[in-house]
Amino acid sequence: MQSSASKMALPSLEPPVAHLTLQGISKVFPGRTGTVDKLLRRTSKPFVAIADIDLEVEPNTFVSIIGPSGCGKSTLLNIIAGLSQPTTGQVSINGQPVSAPGPDRGVVFQNYALMPWMTVAENIDFAVETVYPSMGIAQRKSIVQDYICLVGLRGAEAKHPHELSGGMKQRVGIARALAINPQILLMDEPFGALDALTRGFLQDEIERIWEQERKTVILITHSIEEALLLSDKIVMMTRGPAAGIAQVLDVPFPRPRRREELDQYPGYHELKAAMEQHLSYETRAVEESRVRK
Amino acid sequence: MTHEVFRSAPPKVKPFRLNTDQQAFLLFITILLVFLGLWELGANAKLFLPIMPSASQTIADLWFWISNPFFDNGPNDQGIGFLLLTSLRRVLSGFLIGTAIAIPLGILIGLSPVVSKAVDPFIQILRPVSPLAWLPLGLALMRDSERTALFVIAITSIWPTLINTKFGVSNVDPAYLNVAHTLGASRWRIITKVILPAAAPNIVSGLRISLGIAWLVIVAAEILLSGGIGYFVWNEWNNLKITSIITAILIVGLVGLLMDYLFGVLQHRVSFGQRS
To answer: CB–CB of B181 and A162 under 8 A?
Structure first.
C-alpha cells in the first residue's frame, strides 16, 4: 500500500517516481470491410489515428501535448490511461509494460465524470476506497479531507455535483485523481468546458498544486498559454490521419510561475511564436483537407 | 444625468391579479360545479335512464362510504377501507414478487448482450399480452383465487420494471465506467457502486409504471376472482347501486394518484439532478 495518507504531511517521504516511455505507439480504427457492409455499400477504410509515437517522459515533469483538433491527442491519452489498446507499440512505466488501466495513473476527464449520486467527499472517497480497500475509515476520511482542502473546496464536502459550478466540479475531479496518489496524472483537456476566467483561475490552481505535490503530468490541451504556463516540455503533434510528434519544446522558465509575469521570461515570445506558427499551419491544412473531402 | 436612469421607479399600485395556479384552481372548481350542476339538472329532469342516480344522491352515498370505512358484515358487505386493504395487499404482494424477478433479471440482461439477445424474444412476445389473459392459466396452476391474483399482478409488474432496468443498466454514461476502470475497480464494485446507482432513476421509473398498471389490473382481476375493491364494483353492479360504483371509481383513482405521487418523490430522491 502506498503511504498516501502521510503524503500530505511528509511530502518527501515517498516521492512517486515514474519514468513513462511510449514506444512505437499506433492506433488504427478498423474500417467496415465485411461482406454485409459490402452488400450494403457502406464499407469504409481503416482509419490510422496516430502512427509511430515515441516519447520519453522524465519523472516529475509536466508535459503538455498540443495539436490541431482531431489529431488523436485524446486517443493517445486513453492509450496511456489503459482505456484503449494501441494497435502497435508499448506503454511502459519504469520499464514495466502497462496495458490495462490502473491506479498508478490518475485521470482527470474533460467532462468531469463525477458520479451525480455521490457528494464531493463521497466521489473522492470512492476513488480512495477502490484503490486502498484495506485502509481504515479514519485514514480514508483524513485523506479525503486533505485533498478537499488542497483544491480549495472545504465547506462543499456534502454537496452533490449538480449543485457545483463547472470549475468546482473539475476541482473535485482533480482532487479525486490526486487522492489515490498516482505516479502519473493524466489530464484530458481538463479546462476545455470552462469559461475563460474560470479556466485561468484553475490553471493557476494547477500550478500551485503542482508546486506542492510534484508528479509526472501529461496534459492534453489546445491552449498555447496554458501549455506555456504549466509545462516543462511541450509535445506538438502533427495533424491526423496518422498523426505523429512534430517537435518537443523545452520550457525553461523558472518556477513557481506567475501568469502575469510569464511574458517577461526570456524566450517566451519565441516559443509562443513557434507554437502558433506550427498550430496554425496544421490547423489550416486540416481545414483545407476537410473542404476538399 | 445618467444616474437618474438607475433610480428605481416609484412603486405603482399593482392591479389585483391572480397567479397561474390560482386561476387554474378557479377554473377547476368551475368545471367541477358545472359538471355536477348539469348532472343534477339532467337527473331531475329525467334525461337519463332511471337507473342513473343524481349528483346529490351520489355525493351522499360517497360520504356514507368515506365516513364509515371499516365495517364488516360478511364477505359481501364490507366497508370501503377493508376492501381497499384487500386490494392493496394483493397489489403490493404481487408487485413485490414481480419486482424481485424483474430487477435482477433486468440487471442481468442489461449487463450481458448475449443474455439480452437470447431473452429478448420471450420478453417481446409476452410483454404485449393483456395481464388478464394469464388469469385462467393462473387458476389452472394455482387452484386458488388469492394466489391467482398475486400471479397476475406479479406478471403485470414485471415488464415495465424489467425493460427500464435493462435500459438503465446498459446505458450508464461511459464516463462513469471509465472512472471506475482507471481506478482498477472490481466488476462487482462497478456493478454495485456505479451501474446500479446510475440506473436507479430508470429502475424507479419502471417501478412507478409497473405499480400503476398493477393497480389498473387489480380491479379487473378482482371482478373475475373475488374480494377487494374490484369485486365490490361488480357486486354493486349486480345490486344496481350505481352510486357505489361511482364512489369506487373515485376512490380507486385517488389511491392510484397517491401511490404514483409517492413513487414520484422516490424518483426525485434518486435522480440527483439527472433527468428530473
So the answer is: no
Q: Look at residue B248 and tell me whether its pLDDT is greater than 70.
A: yes
Note the pLDDT tens digit of each residue in A198-227.
888 889 888 888 888 888 999 999 889 899
pLDDT in tens, B134-164: 999 988 998 888 899 999 999 999 999 999 9
The whole-angstrom distance between A167's CA and the closest CA on chain B is 18
The continuous run of DSSP H or E covering A66 comes out as strand A62-66
Which residue's C-alpha cell is 462497478? Answer: B190
In this structure, the number of other CB atoms found within 10 A of the CB of residue B196 comes to: 18
| pTM of the predicted model as reported, rounded to 2 decimal places | 0.83
Residues of chain B with pLDDT > 90: what percent?
A: 59
Mean pLDDT (chain A) is 87
Contact A36, A211 (CB under 8 A): no
Q: What is the ipTM of this complex?
A: 0.84
Chain B partners within 8 Å of A163 (Cβ): 273
Q: What is the pLDDT of residues A16-31, one digit of tens each?
A: 577 899 998 999 888 8
Residue whose C-alpha cell is 392493496: B88
| Contact present, A232 and A244 (Cβ < 8 Å) | no
A161-210 confidence digits (pLDDT tens)? 999 998 899 999 999 999 999 989 999 999 888 888 888 888 988 888 88
Question: What is the model's pLDDT at position A16?
Answer: 59
Q: List % helix, strand, coil for chain A (3-state, nearest 5).
A: 40, 20, 40
Whether the bond into A241 is cis, omega within 30 of 0: yes
Direct distance between the N- and C-terminal alpha carbons of chain B, in angstroms, rounded to an integer: 48
Residues of A contacting chain B (CB within 8 angstroms): 81-83, 101-103, 105-107, 109, 111, 113, 115-118, 126-127, 130-131, 160-163, 176, 180
Q: Contact B244/B109 with Cβ under 8 angstroms?
A: no
A123/chain B closest Cα distance in angstroms = 10
Closest alpha carbon to B102 in B21, B210, B23: B210
Contact B167, A108 (CB under 8 A): no
Mean pLDDT of B95-123: 95
CB contact under 8 A, A106 and B182: yes
Kindly report the nearest CA distance between residue B188 and chain A, in angstroms: 11
Sequence-distant (≥ 6) Cβ neighbours of residue A266 within 8 angstroms: none
Inspect the interface and report whether the beta carbons of B198 and A81 lie closer than 8 Å.
Answer: no
Q: Could B273 and A82 be called an inter-chain contact, meaning their C-beta atoms sit closer than 8 Å? A: no
The helices-and-strands tally (H runs, E runs) of chain B is 12, 0
| B-chain residue closest to A81, CA distance | B182
Name the residue in chain A with its Cα closest to that of B269: A117
Of A118, A130, A162, the CB nearest to B183: A130
- What whole-number percentage of chain A has pLDDT above 90? 45
B14 CA: distance to closest CA in chain A (Å): 36
